[in-house]
Amino acid sequence: MSEIIVTREDGPTGGRYLTTIDGHTAEMTYSKAGTTRLIIDHTGVPDALRGKGAGQALVQRAVEDAREAGLKIIPLCPFAKAQIAKHPEWQDVLA
Question: Would you state the pLDDT for residue 2?
Answer without folding.
Answer: 65
